[in-house]
Q: What sequence folds into this?
């Protein structure tokens, strides 16, 4: 079992993981990690120096020489073992997530499961990485293709999914034959060390997977390094754009997933009980700190009032409290600063003229220790309001009323983000038209959070994704490999002399 799991010390230090072991920094900078439900310190995390990052890069570079030539069958066996170990420790891992992030334990364990599905997908790499073969494309000429690893890959991951998002990246990268450096959020750092220790237990050679903690110094040192072959990022749009520009300008591969403003479109014929239940989970689950959370509700025609009749009582019944209690539906926000930022958006919405139906600032939980905020609901927002335009990343739902189906599609398509969306309806024609014409990367039909399973691919459109590859699925396999095509001929002897033209039929 990982040394992190079951460690109850409030002063434990989260160090780097380099060359198969915990590694103390040459830096003396540490940041406090807090239990978001209490506001108390639960750990401190190392802020790496440039030398620390360079040490991880050296370790990854050395390991790549051997790991890239290791049989894909052996690489896949590591993933089979990792799957077993995660299943063994998943409840303890969930406790770490809940302590550092705040989400309810059941939600934390569910996020581990969605990451575990990518591990399972990676177990099939011997099949996934297969090339193609054609014999006799010309007389005595055969052509075949292969997919080969890139080198050192980097993953920069957000605070809200310290288990799931890294698991979307490194299992595929490693099983494709690359080495991997993970830079997790300094707000939720401990899971990254769990992955290092479990991978070592699973038989992964030292140096194939390294962890660097830190801030912009660590990130920029990684991105600026000529040794890095590819970078994967999940976070806010401004940083995603920075990562994309920095890495792509060096001619390196990059997948950078940014922000979102996910719309749920409600047709008048929708089952309003179903819609209300969907909005409670998709809007307020994990305190709205999900890139796939629903934050904008688009009601068409006369659908608003029937929806509110069902929705308002459900919002009032939401239990907010520490994530360690599975009877709670929603935990705290990640930090006091972020809670205050979300509260400021409620102020902005009021000032802009949106109708505040439920005010999370007045929730009794706000008087408790920790970074709590109650669920909030706005009605009669317009497309020009900041509460509609901007990603709030908190438990704030905003209703925008439109008259027609076409207006709803136009509203969604005009937004700068195109991560996820959903439509709730009984009309198959409307659903088909919506799915075909909406300019969004992931679409749900009567499904509020349409996160694809591991054998498909996660990724948005517009300013929600920079680069041309989403994460996991076959897109992930293609991202972490290069295609090589070989055309060969094996003559029985030198009989025809030199040839200066391309072989043909």
A:
């Amino acid at each position: 079992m990982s040394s992190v799991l079951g460690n109850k010390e409030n002063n434990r230090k989260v160090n780097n993981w380099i060359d198969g072991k915990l590694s103390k920094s040459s830096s003396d900078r540490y940041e406090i990690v807090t239990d978001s439900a209490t506001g108390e310190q639960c750990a401190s995390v190392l802020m790496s120096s440039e030398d620390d990052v360079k040490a991880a890069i050296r370790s990854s570079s050395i390991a790549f020489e051997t790991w890239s030539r290791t049989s894909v069958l052996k690489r896949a066996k590591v993933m089979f073992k990792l799957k077993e170990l995660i299943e063994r420790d998943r409840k303890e891992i969930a406790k770490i997530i809940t302590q550092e992030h705040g989400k309810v334990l059941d939600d934390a364990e569910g996020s581990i499961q969605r990451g575990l599905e990518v591990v399972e997908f990676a177990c099939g790499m011997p099949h996934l990485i297969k090339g193609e073969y054609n014999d006799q494309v010309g007389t005595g000429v055969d052509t075949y293709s292969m997919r080969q690893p890139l080198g050192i890959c980097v993953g920069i991951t957000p605070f809200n999914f310290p288990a799931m998002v890294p698991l979307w990246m490194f299992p595929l990268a490693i099983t494709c034959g690359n080495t991997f450096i993970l830079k997790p959020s300094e707000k939720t750092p401990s899971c990254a060390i769990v992955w290092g220790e479990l991978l070592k237990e699973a038989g992964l050679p030292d140096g194939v997977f390294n962890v660097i903690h830190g801030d912009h110094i660590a990130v920029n040192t990684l991105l600026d390094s000529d040794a890095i072959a590819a970078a994967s990022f999940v976070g806010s749009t401004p940083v995603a754009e920075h990562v994309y520009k920095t890495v792509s300008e060096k001619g390196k591969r990059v997948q950078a997933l940014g922000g979102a403003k996910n719309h749920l479109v409600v047709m008048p014929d929708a089952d309003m009980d179903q819609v209300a239940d969907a909005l409670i989970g998709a809007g307020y689950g994990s305190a709205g700190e999900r890139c796939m959370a629903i934050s904008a509700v688009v009601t068409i025609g006369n659908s608003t009032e029937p929806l509110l009749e069902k929705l308002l009582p459900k919002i009032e019944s939401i239990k907010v409290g520490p994530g360690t209690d599975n009877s709670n539906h929603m935990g705290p926000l990640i930090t006091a600063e972020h809670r205050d930022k979300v509260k400021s958006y409620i102020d902005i919405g009021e000032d802009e003229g949106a109708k505040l139906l439920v005010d999370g600032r007045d929730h009794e939980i706000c008087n408790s220790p920790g970074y709590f905020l109650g669920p909030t609901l706005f009605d009669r927002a317009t497309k020009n309001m900041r509460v509609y335009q901007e990603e709030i990343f908190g438990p704030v739902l905003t209703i925008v009323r439109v008259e027609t189906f076409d207006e709803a599609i136009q509203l969604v398509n005009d937004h700068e983000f195109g991560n996820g969306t959903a439509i709730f309806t009984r009309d198959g024609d409307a659903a088909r038209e919506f799915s075909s014409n909406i300019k969004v990367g992931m679409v749900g039909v009567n499904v509020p959070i349409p996160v694809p399973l591991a054998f498909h691919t996660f990724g948005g459109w517009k300013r929600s994704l920079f680069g041309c590859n989403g994460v996991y699925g076959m897109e992930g396999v293609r991202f972490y490999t290069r295609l090589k095509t070989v055309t060969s001929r094996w003559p029985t002897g030198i009989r025809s002399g030199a040839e200066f033209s391309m072989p043909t039929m």
About this structure: The longest helix spans residues 72-100.
